[in-house]
Structures are given as structure tokens and as C-alpha cells.
Amino acid sequence: MKLLELYRYRELIKHLVLREIKGRYKQSFIGFFWILLNPLFQMLIMSFVFSFVIRTGQLSVPFPIFVFVGLLPWTLFSNSLSSGVNILVDNASLIRKIYFPREILLIATLIAKLVDFAIASMIFIAMMLYYQIPFTWYMLLFVPILLVQTVFTFGLALVLSALNLLYRDVQYMFQLILSLWFYLTPIVYSVDFFPEQYRWIFQINPMSVFINAYRQVLLGGDVFNIPAILLGGGIALVMFFISYGLFKKMEGIVADVV
User: Fold this and answer.
1) Would the N or C end of the chain have less CB density within 10 A of its end CB?
2) DSSP codes of every residue in 73-125
3) Could you tell me which of 180, 187, 227 has the C-alpha nearest to residue 203?
4) Where is average pLDDT lowest: 1-5, 93-97, 199-203, 228-232?
5) CA geometry: angle at 58 spanning 53 and 60, to 5°?
6) Do residues 36 and 123 make contact, with C-beta atoms less than 8 angstroms apart?
7) How far apart are CA 191 and CA 197, in angstroms?
8) Considering the chain, what is the average pLDDT of its residues?
């Protein structure tokens, strides 16, 4: 990716980010407050179900904040991919009119989702204060975890958007896979509660690695599992370079296909 070329299109990226954020809540009565309400209500429902209906065992932190720390990065991941898989199809008219690096569309979408993530994180800060969980310097380590997750998400979005141009079934298959992926990621349960013979699933699931790392630095007051994050980072980089190569090869036919 040529960063200088992307810098030349910075105004376009800014316009697309603002269009994504504003357009999502256009003609909505409470507008941007949905960014806060959506994860908040999901957390409340999951906390009720898994605290009172389905027992998940004892945790070292209150269950609502345990769920929320898993739900925030998962929401960022799933929303980014859900928008990204259709990004080229949805912007067909723009693609036909002018030339620009097509990955800019995905970059703008991902930045918009990161803005949502930052706003929704205010709920996490409020919950930390409410449950009197101390703030530590280890919390700053969430930044490299978020960076690795963003690279992984961007790479996966690249390949999905490219494949969806040729096979529109990709968007429907992806939703099914995403639903399964949610339950195979420790968002509403701890890995320790899962049968030991199946825990290898979490070792090969990058989102499981990321979420466990977030919980370790934000709630556990400790350094994340470095080998696990290095593995996740390696997977993210491999995914990115393969996906970007495929995406750029298809860039020449994008305008014709859409």
C-alpha cells in the first residue's frame, strides 16, 4: 500500500468517513446515541441471561463488565466486516465515475467504525468507575492489541469485498459464519469454563486471542500473553498481504464487475 498515494486522497477519505457516520443515523431521533445504546443494551441482555438464566461460573470481575470488554472489540470487528463485504457493490456509482484506490472505501469504513468504538468505550470507563476497578498503566497495552485487530479486520475485509464482487453468495455465507464465530469466541463466557479438550479452538481463533488480551490488560492488571499476540499478529499480517495482493489484482476489473 502506497501511503503517499493515500495521503493525496486524504480529503476523499475524510468525506467518506463523515458520510458513513452521518448517513448511518440520518433521520434518526436520537442519532449518535445509538452508538452508546446498542452495545449497552446488548451487554444488559447478555448479563441478565448468563447471570440469572444460564450460570457461567465464578469470575474475578463483575459479569457485566466482563461481557462488555468482549463485546466492544467484537462489535467493532463484526460491524466493520458487515459493512466492508458490500462496500464495493454499495459504492458502484462512485467507482464508475472517478478513479481512486479502491481500498480507500474500506479504510474510510474502518475509521468510522473505530470512531464508534471510541465513543462506546465511554460506557466501559463509566463501568470501571461504577464497579471501582482500578485504572492501571497496563491498560495502555490495549493500543497494540487494537492495532493488530485492525490489521486483521482490514485484511479480511479486503478479501471478502473482492470475492463478493464475483460471487454475491459471499455476503450471505459470511453472515452465517459470523454467527458461528460469535459463539466460538469467549465473549459471554470465559475460556476456563469451556471443556478442556476443545480449548484448542481458541488458540487458532484470532478474535479469541484479542479478546482474552483485552481482558488481561484492562481487567486483569497484567501484561497480555505475548506469544499468543505475536501469533495473532502474524496471522493478521499474512491475512493482510495475501488479501491486499488479491484485492489489487482485481482492482482493474472492479468498475466492469460492479
Assistant:
1) N
2) HHHHHHHHHHHHTTHHHHTHHHHHH----THHHHHHHHHHHHHHHHHHHHHHH
3) 227
4) 1-5
5) 130
6) yes
7) 12
8) 81
What pLDDT, in 10s, does the model give residues 84-95? Answer: 888 887 877 777
Of 47, 49, 52, which Cα lies nearest the Cα of 64? 47
CA quadruple 239, 242, 244, 250: dihedral sign: negative
Residue type, 128: M
DSSP 133: P
Residue 54 confidence (pLDDT) above 50? no
C-alpha 159/C-alpha 164 separation (Å) is 8
The Cα 14–Cα 242 span in angstroms is: 27
At 217, the pLDDT band (50, 70, 90 cuts) reads very high
Residues 6+ apart with CB under 8 A from 219: 60, 61, 65, 66, 69, 133
Measured CA to CA, the distance from residue 258 to residue 37 in angstroms comes to 35
Single pTM value for the model: 0.83
Read off the C-alpha cell for 88.
464495493
Checking if the pLDDT of 227 tops 80, the result is yes
CA dihedral 79, 81, 85, 88 (to 10 degrees): 80
Amino acid at 112: A
Interatomic CA distance for residues 7 and 105, integer angstroms: 14
Cell of 155: 485484511
Give CA torsion, residues 67, 212, 150, 246, to 10 deg: -120
CA–CA dist 43, 47 (Å, integer): 6
